[in-house]
Specification:
Length: 281
């Protein structure tokens, strides 16, 4: 196996004996000067194939412990759920779990869809989500809202739909979704003064959040909670981003006839701030 590019000291882009590209995980494999041959394959603890290039850089930011935990969780889910999953799931789920842990450590309470609602439609995925929450709490010494299980469950649902099982509903929403996605991302770019790479993970993350938001709008299930104080605090800490979110709210009022709740605006501030952070602002 040849290491061709370092992601960090323990993650690297490699080429296997059949010429296929993969992400390899192993202690110190990214430390030597690249390219080089890995002589002892026992150093490699995990490999990930068919990862979309736009997600690869994310491995630099996610702790190795979280990636290993997520990989094991996905293996369990594959056995339990019995369907094919998008190979990018390990990366996107790792990012989701890492973000959940960070929010818990900073006492940021972002209300998720109620797990019992997800259970009505996706009981098997919800069961895995609840199991995951308990394991995250135990492994990472944090407390998570039980409804965090719904976000994990929906990651599995979306990974399934991203392969061969796109639903008619998703096809019907696609045209409107793409239009709103481009409109809103253009508002962010104009207001913040950045250009967001449409092939980047930042864009993919925002796209996923927007799809969830449109689903909640369509189902009249806007997120509400007692996070008014947190929202006000975030507005004061990030006034430029908060002003951008106010423009997005006007857009949604004009386009969809709805007013975003403070909870939804708080979530948008968090996501747009992550975009700005990744863009170096």
């Amino acid at each position: 196996m040849q290491v061709i590019n370092k992601l960090n000291n323990n993650f690297a882009i490699c080429i296997d004996g059949e010429g296929k590209e993969l992400i390899a995980v192993g202690k110190g494999i990214g430390f030597p000067k690249t390219p080089y041959e890995v002589e002892d394959l026992n150093l490699i603890t995990r490999t990930f194939y068919d990862i979309d290039p736009k997600y690869i850089e994310l491995f630099k930011d996610i702790p190795e412990k979280v990636v290993h935990f997520t990989a094991k969780l996905v293996e369990i889910a594959k056995n339990e759920l019995g369907y094919e999953m998008n190979p990018n799931l390990v990366v996107t789920m790792s990012d989701h779990i890492h973000f959940s842990i960070q929010r818990a450590q900073k006492n940021i309470d972002v209300q998720m869809p109620l797990i019992y609602e997800v259970e009505q439609t996706f009981p098997a995925e919800a069961r895995i989500g609840k199991y995951a929450v308990k394991q995250i709490e135990r492994r990472f010494n944090v407390w998570l809202d039980p409804n965090e299980a719904s976000g994990i469950a929906m990651n599995f649902v979306n990974a399934r739909y991203d392969t061969r099982l796109k639903t008619d509903v998703a096809d019907q929403l696609k045209k409107q979704y793409q239009e709103i996605l481009e409109d809103t991302i253009s508002i962010v770019e104009d207001e913040i003064g950045i250009v967001i790479d449409r092939d980047s993970f930042n864009f993919a993350r925002y796209s996923s959040h927007l799809m969830y938001l449109l689903d909640r709008i369509a189902g009249n299930k806007m997120l509400y909670s007692d996070n008014g104080i947190m929202y006000q605090s975030m507005k004061e800490e990030f006034p430029g981003i908060a002003a951008c979110v106010e423009l997005l709210e006007r857009y949604f009022k004009r386009k969809c006839g709805i007013i975003l709740s403070k909870e939804e605006k708080l979530y948008l501030i968090l996501h747009i701030n992550r975009i700005c952070t990744r863009e170096g602002l």
